[in-house]
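STRUCTURE:
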C-alpha cells in the first residue's frame, strides 16, 4: 500500500484543489487495518493505490515512514482534515456533503454540531444509506442528488473497506472529492469517544478504542497489529541493508 508523506496543511491544500476541479476524486484515510486489508486483497490494494491521495491517519504509519527515512512525515488524522475542511468551507465556498452514519438521527446530530462549531459551513447534502446494498435505481438517485447539490467535498463514513470501494466505484460518476472518514460521524455525534490528545500522540489511540469497544474490535486488532509489525519489520530490514 502506497501512503503519501505529507502533513495537515499540505493535505488541506491538495483536497481544496481537487474539490474545486468539480471532477471525481477520492482520498483514502489509511491505518493499520487498511494496510492489512490491502495485503489480503490485490483488488483492494488497487482501490487504495489508485486514490488521488492516501494519508497516514494511523500513528504507526507515520512512524513507519520516519523509520524508512522520511523525517518530515507527519500523522494526518481523518478527523483533523475533516474539521479543517469544514472550517474552510465558508471562506473557500466549498459545499460539504455527508454520506454514511448509522441513522438519519445520528446524521442530523452531526449536521447540528458541525453548524454549531463552524457557523459558516456550507452543508448541501446529507444521506444515511441503509445497511443493505442500494438498488441500481437508488444508487443512481444518490449520484443525481449529490451532483445536483453541487457538493465539492463528500465525507463517506461507511467503514473500511466498504467506503474505499464505494468511492472508487463512484469516482467517474460524481463531481466532487470524496474522503473516507470511517467512524467520524459517531465521534462527532458523541456516540463514541475520542482518545485524549496525549494518547493519540504516543500512538495508543488503538488501545483506547479497544478498551472502549472490546467486543467489536478485539479480533481486528489481534489479527492486524502483529501482522503489521511483522510485515513492516521485513520492509525495514530491506531498507537497512540497501
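SEQUENCE:
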Amino acid at each position: 500500500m502506497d501512503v503519501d508523506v505529507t502533513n495537515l496543511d499540505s493535505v488541506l491544500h491538495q483536497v481544496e484543489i481537487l474539490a474545486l476541479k468539480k471532477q471525481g476524486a477520492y482520498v483514502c484515510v489509511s491505518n493499520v487495518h487498511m494496510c492489512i486489508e490491502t495485503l489480503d486483497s490485490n483488488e483492494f490494494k488497487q482501490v487504495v493505490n489508485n486514490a488521488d491521495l492516501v494519508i497516514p491517519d494511523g500513528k504507526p504509519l507515520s512512524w513507519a515512514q520516519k523509520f524508512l527515512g522520511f523525517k518530515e512525515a507527519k500523522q494526518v488524522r481523518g478527523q483533523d482534515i475533516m474539521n479543517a475542511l469544514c472550517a474552510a468551507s465558508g471562506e473557500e465556498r466549498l459545499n460539504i456533503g455527508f454520506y454514511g452514519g448509522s441513522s438519519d438521527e445520528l446524521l442530523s446530530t452531526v449536521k447540528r454540531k458541525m453548524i454549531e462549531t463552524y457557523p459558516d459551513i456550507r452543508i448541501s447534502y446529507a444521506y444515511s444509506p441503509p445497511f443493505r446494498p442500494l438498488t441500481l435505481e437508488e444508487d443512481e438517485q444518490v449520484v443525481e442528488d449529490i451532483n445536483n447539490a453541487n457538493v465539492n467535498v463528500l465525507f463517506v463514513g461507511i467503514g473500511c473497506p466498504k467506503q474505499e470501494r464505494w468511492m472508487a466505484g463512484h469516482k467517474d460518476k460524481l463531481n466532487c472529492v470524496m474522503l473516507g472518514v470511517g467512524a467520524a460521524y459517531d465521534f462527532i455525534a458523541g456516540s463514541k469517544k475520542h482518545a485524549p490528545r496525549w494518547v493519540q500522540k504516543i500512538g495508543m489511540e488503538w488501545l483506547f478504542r479497544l478498551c472502549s469497544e472490546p467486543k467489536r474490535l478485539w479480533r481486528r486488532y489481534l489479527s492486524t497489529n502483529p501482522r503489521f509489525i511483522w510485515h513492516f519489520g521485513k520492509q525495514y530490514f530491506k531498507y537497512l541493508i540497501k
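REMARK: The two ends are 20 Å apart (CA to CA).
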